Amino acid sequence: MAPLTSATQLAEKANLPFPGASADYTRARKALLAEEIEFRRHMTRVAEQRRALPPGPVIAKDYRFKDEQGFEVSLLELFGTKDALVTYFWMYGPQRERPCPMCTNWLGAVNGNAADIKQRVALKILGRSPVERQYAFAQQRGWRDLNFVQTVGDDYARDLGLLNPDGSENPALVVFKRDGDQVRLFWSSAMTRDMADPDQDPRDAPDIASLWSILDLTPEGRAKDWYPKLQY
């Protein structure tokens, strides 16, 4: 691989879209652009490191799920014809009157890309509520491209540490890989609440929630005390 041009050199090629910028703004913007280029390169290295993970553990337990037709299926059957399965466990258990607003926000953005995502991998949204209840909420939100699956029993949620002693839930983004007639864990979100930096909400990196990615581009960024709601 050819050596990379320094980010600082590349940033010198920047053309600001509007005339009249001060020298201070131009200098600071180019310095920021160099950091953004380095950030892009770091994200690329992280993605390559993720893809190079050794084979993960075989999923030995026979977790059961109920699909949109109401049929009971195995984890392997959730793959369909794909070799990779992306799952998101959302906080919409039977004890909740309404789903988690943050999960709802995230799924709304994913729905917009789901048809494209499913060209490459299987994508399933897992929840503890009856599958009919999950789809009823999806219809209210206008989600047309997400496939919801009910977990049968709570073994899956308990084994992943998604059920708290008080009955509340935690979300989970987990990617599985087909290995012949077996399923292996490929990757799962592992940044827990106690890994958050001071004065920050717990979150993964890169942050794949478009809500926060867009707000991070704005002057005030993501407010410390603002969160999305189900209705405004």
Written account of the structure:
The chain is of the alpha/beta class and 232 residues long. The protein has two domains: 1-52, no CATH class; 64-188, Glutaredoxin. It is 31% helix and 16% strand. The protein is built from six helices and seven strands. The chain has a seven-stranded mixed beta sheet with strand order 2-1-5-4-3-6-7. The chain starts with 6 loop residues before the first helix and ends in a 17-residue tail after the last helix.
Record the SSE blueprint:
Elements lengths: L6 H5 L11 H29 L12 E3 L5 E3 L9 E6 L11 H17 L4 E6 L3 H11 L6 E4 L3 H5 L12 E8 L2 E7 L21 H6 L17
Parallel strand pairs: 3-4, 4-5
Antiparallel strand pairs: 1-2, 1-5, 3-6, 6-7
The CATH architecture category of the largest domain equals: 3-Layer(aba) Sandwich
Largest sheet: 7 strands, mixed
Percentage of residues in helical conformation: 25-40%
- How many structural domains does the protein architecture include? 2
Total count of strands: 7
| Subunit organisation of the chains | single chain
Provide the gyration radius in Å.
21 Å
Spatial arrangement of strands, main beta sheet: 2-1-5-4-3-6-7
